[in-house]
Write a structure and sequence with these properties.
Layout: H1 3-25, H2 33-45, H3 48-53, H4 70-85, E1 95-99, H5 105-112, E2 117-122, H6 125-134, E3 141-145, E4 158-164, H7 173-182, E5 184-197, H8 207-219, H9 228-237, E6 245-249, H10 251-254, H11 256-267, H12 269-273, H13 277-298, E7 302-310
Parallel strand pairs: 1-2, 1-4, 2-3, 4-5
Antiparallel strand pairs: 5-7, 6-7
Helix pairs in contact: 2-6, 8-13, 11-13
Length: 311
């Protein structure tokens, strides 16, 4: 074996293990709601996530056997969940709360396309600031910094509740459900989507799966995951729920998002390069977690749960 080849292999191994160490020591482990806020403040302020994912910081909806752009799939997801949940049955002018609104992508669609009067809440001050910057004055949206586990609204204040991929950051899923349903008026519509684990009561995780789950929790400030059946039960038993909860697993529709999110860096290289060298390092740093998420959802360790119920 030539000296050059030995050096090349050695260099690749050193680079690999250096990246692995950097990935682990910079884990974003959940400690409190403050760590969630800090993580999203950072992701918002460096603009890398917005440059790559656009204004929708959630997975997309990919129709079977149909090619669709990554960002178009995200918009498609909003419309599919609105239709599936029955939220589109609400008349224009209805009051809708977007719990975990990010930088307001879904809120603006709900306001502009469906005519709702939308209030978006997030625990991240940086996200609220950016959401306001991106929202035209005539768009019927307003944004507030607020903890989803302590909603500062009166009982029954909203005709509809919307929440996408926020629940995985909540350390108390029962309180999360209770706060949403408390602020939903009787007969109102709840539309929710979230990352869920497989039901471990029926199928406990293997040793490998436990290791992977630990990384998925610690890399993106998640306190714990819950199965679709468990969270559905929490919703149905809540005193402010009609009791009839319909849920589904949208893995097959959303899974392409993971690889697509990596390929966005290739399709739109300037989105990263124009932010400087630090952005390149940060983007590479997220790839292992994205690939683990892709594996976990494809293997059924994780499930993309969607829920609908009435107040």
């Amino acid at each position: 074996m030539s000296t050059f080849l030995i050096f090349s292999v050695f260099f690749v191994l050193v680079l690999f293990f250096s990246c692995l160490i950097f990935w682990r020591i910079n884990a974003r482990k959940y400690i409190s709601s403050g760590t969630v806020a800090s993580a999203y403040d950072s992701w918002t302020q460096d603009k890398l996530l917005e440059r790559l994912w656009g204004e929708h910081i959630h997975l997309g909806f990919y129709p079977p056997k149909k090619s669709i752009d990554f960002r178009e799939a995200k918009v498609r997801f909003v419309h599919e969940l609105v239709s599936w949940s029955g939220l589109d049955k609400l008349p224009r002018g209805s009051r809708v709360l977007d719990v975990g609104c990010g930088i307001g992508g879904s809120s603006r669609i709900l306001a502009n396309y469906y005519g709702f009067n939308v209030t978006g809440i997030t625990i991240s001050p940086a996200q609220v600031k950016r959401a306001i910057e991106l929202t035209p004055y005539e768009c019927k949206c307003n944004f507030k910094v607020m903890d989803a586990l302590d909603l500062k609204f009166e009982d029954g204040a909203f005709d509809g509740i919307w929440s996408v991929e926020a629940g995985a950051h909540m350390n108390n899923k029962t309180k999360f459900a209770d706060q949403m349903l408390r602020t939903l008026r009787p007969g109102g519509y709840l539309a929710l989507a979230d990352w869920n684990s497989r039901d471990f009561r029926k199928h406990p995780p293997s040793m490998l799966e436990k290791i992977i789950l630990k990384q998925l929790l610690e890399q993106w400030v998640h306190p714990k995951f819950m199965s679709i059946n468990e969270f559905s039960s929490i919703l149905s038993k809540n005193k402010n729920s009609s009791g009839q909860v319909i849920c589904d697993n949208w893995n097959s529709f959303t899974n392409p998002s993971w690889f697509d999110s990596v390929f966005e860096g290739i399709r739109r290289p300037n989105a990263i390069l124009t932010l400087g060298p630090g952005a390149i390092v940060k983007s590479i740093r997220e790839i292992p977690t994205i690939l683990l998420m892709d594996w976990a959802f494809k293997k059924g360790l994780m499930e993309f749960g969607v829920y609908k119920c009435r107040g």
